[in-house]
Automatic annotation (TrEMBL):
It comes from the Eukaryota. SUPFAM superfamilies: ClpP/crotonase. Gene3D superfamilies: 2-enoyl-CoA Hydratase, Chain A, domain 1. GO terms for molecular function: delta(3,5)-delta(2,4)-dienoyl-CoA isomerase activity. Belongs to the enoyl-CoA hydratase/isomerase family. This is Delta(3,5)-Delta(2,4)-dienoyl-CoA isomerase, mitochondrial-like. GO terms for cellular component: mitochondrion. The lineage of its organism: Eukaryota, Metazoa, Chordata, Craniata, Vertebrata.
Amino acid sequence: MASYILQPPGTDVARISWHLRDLITRYQETFNVIEKCTKPVIAAIHGGCIGGGMALITACDIRYCAQDAFFQVKEVDVGLAADVGTL
């Protein structure tokens, strides 16, 4: 099922690209809704906050961390520019 979601049937590059753009836009909207919420949104973090978790907490207004919380942006380890905070 994941292969169909990420790449619909067919070989038309333009349609596949448009489908992927639409999919990414829908996933991004989940973070945008948190960012646009008129009420304060609080994130509670314990343990590891990695990847998508970093994007999620940057959309929140307040972040509350336990003592064992740690944060990682692994994109920088492989030489990529991290997109955390570019919502």
